[in-house]
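Fold these two proteins, one after the other.
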Amino acid sequence: MKKNKKKNINIYEQIANFIYETNIHSQTPRSGFWFLGSGDQSVAEHLFHTAIIAYALAHLEAKADKNKAVLMALFHDIGEGRTADNNYVNRCYGRLSETKAVEDIAKSVPFGKEIFKLYKEEQKRKTLEAKLVKDADTLEWITTLRSEETKGNIKARDWIHFAIKKLKTAPAKKLVKALVKTHPDSWWFSLAQETHDTVINEMNEKI
């Protein structure tokens, strides 16, 4: 009976369910923060930022397909809405099948084959885009650790050094040097100073 009901769901209902399910990622916490001792982040936040970084890395690698990298990054942890996020310690004692979760999600939507194909490619880490996305995943974690470090978490620096060793691609290895050197708020202070100077100049011109 249940199978028949699923077959009768039209394409728009399938996509509607998919949209609601993927919204769960915004409420699914990343587990690494439990051990870091500070900070918090949802899976959705991680996916978005990883996609941005993947795009940037693909821009630095001329042969990479930017669109493919971004899509792959957006879907690389899509199964965690069903399995939750598991860190390295959790995985030592078993983990829910994230691959099975992604496979089931893929079966539920008309564009599922593309999602599952991207997921499997990213997991194998053989193509250029897959390697860039994995490095983007790691760099996203490093930027988060850097933010926690500047807030006073003394453990974050050691975690950063550990994460850097995982990077594989040349663009990521070059970019991480700038990321660990740059203060997370430097972009804001630069804009604030520029705005301040502009306002002061405009006031002086009116005097």
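Now the second one:
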Amino acid sequence: MTNCTEINWHSTRLDRVMNIRIYGKASGVPILVFPTQDAMSDNFENFGMIDAVAEDLARGRIQLFCVDTVDTETWSNIWGDKEWRARRQEAYYGYIIDEVLPFLHKENQSGRLPIAAGCSLGGLHAAIVFFRRPDLFDGVLALSGVYDAKFFTDGWMNETLYDNSPLDFLAHMPTDHPYIDLYNQRRIVLCVGQGRWEEEGRRTTALMGDLLYGKDIRAWIDFWGYDVDHDWDWWKKQFVYFLPFVLREQA
């Protein structure tokens, strides 16, 4: 059983207690893990991902920082006021950048920038923080994400939600933006299956691939087979498969 340290504090950004579960040694490359939709910091443990990378954690290859979400107030709150939902998601983004990352750097001793990672809606969260702040992350590993925020709001958009919709803000990023060069210094993986429940993930991953390639941003956009469903059995295989690349252990 992999040891876990659970930390929490009252977030000033969100005005609520938020939990973080830490797995692995402080010498490992830090990975900021976002759970699947509506889930919390125990998500990776509950569905076997911690067991899948237990050896990597034990030998100090990686250190996972698994965070809570407020998805039930934002992306999943389909009957809620859309402007309030967008503001709440932006507050969550601020919590990650202004509260979680400084804590992560205090706890981790590798000297490495973290990798943002997540499956399903966690993949969207990982893409948001990475593509908005590539100066703060060394890469992104997003599995089965949906990268169009409008999918969750019946097509509605405002300036705040725009900043949390990678397909939208990247589409309008000038090709001479300094972040373009930063992206190309990072490791970007967007992967999706083509089986059950992957339709929207497949659609938006393809659009992200076209968009990134069109701006000469190097990224590994990978479509797995028609038997690859939107499910943990496949995400565990994909996470382990792409880990050496995002850790820069291979060319």
